[in-house]
Design a protein that fits this description.
Layout lengths: L1 E2 L8 E6 L2 E8 L2 E6 L13 E3 L2 E3 L6 E3 L15 E2 L1 E4 L2 E4 L9
Antiparallel strand pairs: 1-10, 2-3, 3-4, 4-8, 5-6, 6-7, 9-10
Protein name: Iron-sulfur cluster-binding protein, Rieske family
Organism: Pseudomyxococcus hansupus
GO molecular function: 2 iron, 2 sulfur cluster binding; metal ion binding
C-alpha cells in the first residue's frame, strides 16, 4: 500500500506487492499498475518513457500497454498487471487478480 503523495511529479511510484516490485502510473487521473520488470531483460518499466498508456522499457524500448500489460511489438508477450483502487489518500494494489505473464 502507498499513499497518493508517494507519486512523483510524473505520477509514478514503485511499491512492493507480495515481494514483487510494482510500477504505478497515473494517466488522465486514473492509476494503473504493472510489474516493474520487463519480461525481456528485467528493465525497470517505472523508468521508461510513457506515451499515452504505453510505457517503453528503458533498456530496449519494448512497448507495454499499462492497462492490459500487452506488448505491441511482440504479440503474446505480456507484463503482469494489477488491480488498483484508491481509498481516501491510500493506493491499494491487489496481489490477487493480477494477470500473470505467459
Amino acid at each position: 500500500m502507498a499513499t497518493l503523495d508517494a507519486l512523483d511529479a510524473r505520477g509514478r511510484a514503485v511499491v512492493q506487492v507480495d515481494g514483487v516490485a510494482v510500477a504505478l502510473f497515473r494517466v488522465n487521473g486514473e492509476l494503473h499498475a504493472v510489474a516493474d520488470a520487463c519480461p525481456h531483460r528485467a528493465g525497470p518499466l517505472s523508468e521508461g518513457d510513457l506515451v499515452g498508456y504505453v510505457v517503453h522499457c528503458p533498456l530496449h524500448t519494448w512497448p507495454f500497454d499499462i492497462r492490459t500489460g500487452l506488448c505491441s511489438r511482440h504479440p503474446g508477450v505480456r507484463v503482469p498487471t494489477f488491480e488498483v483502487r484508491v481509498q481516501g489518500q491510500h493506493i491499494l494494489v491487489a496481489a490477487s487478480g493480477s494477470v500473470p505473464a505467459p
